[in-house]
Hints:
Blueprint: E1 2-8, E2 14-21, E3 25-30, E4 35-41, E5 44-45, H1 53-58, E6 66-67, E7 73-74, E8 78-81, E9 84-87, E10 96-97, E11 110-114, E12 118-125, E13 136-145, E14 148-157, E15 161-162, E16 166-167, E17 170-171, E18 183-186, E19 188-192, E20 205-206, E21 218-219, H2 229-234, E22 238-243, E23 249-256, E24 261-267, E25 271-275, E26 283-284, E27 290-291, E28 297-302, E29 317-318, E30 324-334
Antiparallel strand pairs: 1-2, 2-3, 3-4, 4-5, 6-16, 7-10, 8-9, 11-12, 12-13, 13-14, 14-30, 15-29, 17-28, 18-21, 18-23, 19-20, 19-22, 22-25, 23-24, 24-30, 25-28, 26-27
Amino acid sequence: xxxxxxxxxxxxxxxxxxxxxxxxxxxxxxxxxxxxxxxxxxxxxxxxxxxxxxxxxxxxxxxxxxxxxxxxxxxxxxxxxxxxxxxxxxxxxxxxxxxxxxxxxxxxxxxxxxxxxxxxxxxxxxxxxxxxxxxxxxxxxxxxxxxxxxxxxxxxxxxxxxxxxxxxxxxxxxxxxxxxxxxxxxxxxxxxxxxxxxxxxxxxxxxxxxxxxxxxxxxxxxxxxxxxxxxxxxxxxxxxxxxxxxxxxxxxxxxxxxxxxxxxxxxxxxxxxxxxxxxxxxxxxxxxxxxxxxxxxxxxxxxxxxxxxxxxxxxxxxxxxxxxxxxxxxxxxxxxxxx
Length: 339
Ligand code: GAL
């Protein structure tokens, strides 16, 4: 077990790094944001991260962090629950993004337990934080599988509230300048189209015969510049896909020809936000690479964005004393392309 000091925040608080390790996988996690800072499969680091805590503190790319209370956007920074209107902090134009001004990514989490292969972070998000109701006790347990990383999220609240937790890790299995040359498959026949503020319109449309279709693996960049309104609105992919089936199942597969690594994402969630890193602006990464536009891609398993305001979407409301529990795993294997 290795625990070390990663850095000091502007508040003076110390941030620690924790290492999880088995014979295939090595993961470095920070208590700041319960963040995945590095994830190595057979020695190859496949995620984006910073070396310096100041970059985590000042950046707005949410690298590797846990996102909460509510991932993605809430339209008009408000919602109604039990006939009461809640007003949130608008940090993305008129809307709330990734929890508000200080989302869960911007707090130092407590460590409840830590072994060589798992760690559990916890945090109490007090009632009224960012405008949400209920004292919410959140747990995020990272655990190694034989060849991967699992994330189990739990939460319980003392009043009805809204919860949609995810992890914002950017993957680049090649470790070179772009994520566009990775193969991606998403097990989804439908997606939720967005408006100009990147918020779902409420429709659920088929991906068939559009550049949104990833049912057959294709390069991330294959259709990304097509004249297709949905891609133009977001400057690439930034869409929630409706994962086929239910229960714990495979949701997407990402692979790299160059490094012969394949990653399967499994989840019990109903949606996955495929974000092709369109807002990355060239921040210096931990390995000396500049994280330019589309350097990494996120597969954020989640409830549908803005579901709290959209009757057609499954409700993200967590009732008082009910237990929220959800699991996502990123599993790696060796991928040998056909000669
Ligand atoms: C993603 C979101 C993007 C962008 C990004 C952070 O989850 O879908 O629109 O906000 O986070 O830069």
